[in-house]
Specification:
This protein is of the alpha/beta class. The chain has six helices and nine strands, in the order E-H-E-H-E-E-H-E-E-E-H-H-E-E-H. Helix 1 crosses helix 4. The longest helix is centred in the C-terminal third of the chain and has 17 residues. Bound molecules: iron/sulfur cluster. This is Molybdopterin-guanine dinucleotide biosynthesis protein B.
Amino acid sequence: MKIISVIGKKDTGKTTLVRKIIEGLRSRGYKVAGLKHAHVYFDFRDKDTGKYRESGAEIVAGLGKETFILLDKELKPEYLIYLISFIQNPDFLVIEGFKTWKFANISTSPEVKNKFTIATVDENFEIEELLDLIEERSYGLLLNLNCGKCGFDTCEEFAIAKIKGEDVECKSQPKDAMLIVDDVPVPLNPFVQKIIASTITGMIKSLKMEKSKINNIKLFIKNLE
Ligand code: SF4
């Protein structure tokens, strides 16, 4: 899953741009997820679920034609991004905000940009050109594994090369297995991912489940002594 974020000052058209990017990527055939970063409470107060929360529920969920889960705490961004990628496996995650994170980003304000900015736009942006840039220069979540398999010593060096348009790829994105310990994703190199995936799959198969019917396995371990 590649990530693109939209950053910029308040009221500079970030949400409009996010919507255009989502629509454009969808029209190019991609599965797309969206994530908004805000320092506010999300407003469910008038709804039944908001009332449950007022009554003290620490987690509130709604299940119908759509599903949502509302927690009364801010998750670590990398944990949430891992969950999104694991639950839906989208091709792209479009984020509004997170201007200090090392995501490829597009800025709607010339004064708000960093070394991961691939473009700065005003209201006259050409969406197809932006989509081309996003396809070419965005990349997945970097966990500072610094394994060097992409040809760079550090993940940040890789990201900067990618932002500049070099034809490079991270070789250690989570593919076969993900590990999250105490809400923090743990970088695993591809070899370790394969070992974990094949070991757990072998154990599940020994429970007499047919491997052909298994698409993925989620294993949660808690209450460790
Ligand atoms: S291959 Fe990926 S994880 Fe390894 S250094 Fe390059 S960017 Fe970082």
